[in-house]
Each structure stands twice: as C-alpha cells, then as structure tokens.
Amino acid sequence: MHDLPDWVPRRRAEIGNRIRDARRAARLSQVQLGERIGRDHKSISRWENAHRAPDLTDLLLIADALGVPLADLVR
Question: Which residues form the HTH cro/C1-type domain (predicted)?
Fold first, then answer.
C-alpha cells in the first residue's frame, strides 16, 4: 500500500472528532451508539480516535442514530 497524503489522517481525525462530539451531544456512550448501528464499541472507539475510517454505510448509520445530517460529520 502506498503512503497516504498528509491531509488524509488529519481529515480522518476531524471526522472522528465530529462523531465523538455528536455522540456526546446525543448523550450516548460508545456502547449505546454501537448497539444502535449494529457495531461494537471498539469500532466506535477506532473511528473516534482516527485509527480507522468508517465507511459510507457506517457514516449513514451514525448520522441517522445521532439525528444529525451526514454533512455535519464529514464537512
């Protein structure tokens, strides 16, 4: 695999922070969000900490579960 441009990890971290902020605003734990979208809390943690990037389906599920527009998570 080739090296990613520098902006990719930064954007991944920004998206993770937005997921965390929206989850906290909804007063949900990582476990609770995971239960709502059919993922385990470890996946939520990996996304929020930018160790992995959620795919589009996961982003759609997260936005729906948190009641926020998808664009708010990825802007």
Answer: 19-73
The pLDDT assigned to 73 comes to 96
- The CATH code for residues 7-74 is 1.10.260.40
pLDDT confidence of residue 1: 54
User: 48, 17 in Cβ contact below 8 A?
Assistant: yes
The pLDDT, as a whole number, for residue 14 is 97
Q: List, in sequence order, the alpha helices (H) in 1-75.
A: 7-25, 30-37, 41-48, 56-66, 70-74
pLDDT at 4: 84
Query: Distance (Å, rounded) from C-alpha 6 to C-alpha 14?
Result: 13
Domain ranges of the chain: 7-74
The encoded tokens of residue 21 equal 């902020």
* pTM of this structure: 0.91
